[in-house]
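Support case: user asked for a sample of complex input and structure output to validate their parser. Sending the pair below.
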Amino acid sequence: MTHFLDILPTPTADLRQMIGQARTMKDARRDRPKGMCDDETPLDGRMVALIFEKPSTRTRVSFDVGARQMGAQTMVLSGTDMQLGHGETIADTARVLSRYVDLIMIRTFEEQTLLEMAENATVPVINGLTNRTHPCQIMADIMTFEEHRGPIKGRKVVWSGDGNNVFASFAQAAAQFEFDLVFTGPRPLDPEPEILEAARAAGGNIEIVRDPMAAVEGADLVVTDTWVSMHDPVSARERRHNQLRGYQVNAELMGRAKPDALFMHCLPAHRDDEATSEVMDGPHSVIFDEAENRLHAQKAVMRWCLGV
Ligand code: CP
Ligand code: NVA
């Protein structure tokens, strides 16, 4: 079974193939109405289930639209409306869904839920974000960087802020796509040591630099994300804001990066918290290309999972 659970366990050549295919599919449908199918519809006759146990705008819409453009039918399921939210096991849910659908995408809390779904499903499962990682986002991010600046290999990527799930997938990508990654943030919000260890063991060059100004020096790409993720307790908001204020991506910080550095944010953003609107709407920012590329990258991920 070809699941897309994370960046690190996916073969490097396959990740590369998916990014290339995403680019080709994007080019092939330039200026085409969004609701029109692609010329090629490799998912004809397939049924795709999209399960959300957390809110989503981009993941939900881009998977749904992408699957339909490739000829599939889709159903969006809210975790709380399913028996899953009322005590049915993940394993039983996975076995049952596999009798109805050809592909499952799930956004959930614990990584264990995703893993149990994958273990028990007899159809491919895609990770649409867990508390721990967000691999689909990073496929779009790599695609976006390379579209604007060419190969990411050997480039310097700086993450400023919380060492969260999106950072974790960047750490895995640093190993797979061979870019240098610098994390800058307050010690209490450091990335999980196991994530760093695994990415480093796979060859990722990942450094932690506390001073954001020093960290960003010479960066080709500056990335940040919300200071309070969906799985973080609301009560942590004020503390996190105090801890992270010095890591805001603003014009001064971007000014330390290379003059042609890009700025990315997976969105949704809290404008003027983790990044200023000046940066988000400024000349370095590619945040809406990044959001668009979720669509193209995930279409390639779905094709890879189904082998079509
Ligand atoms: N970036 C991202 O995954 O956005 P959504 O939460 O809107 O899906
Ligand atoms: N780190 C964020 C990403 C949202 C797409 C979260 O998990 O809420």
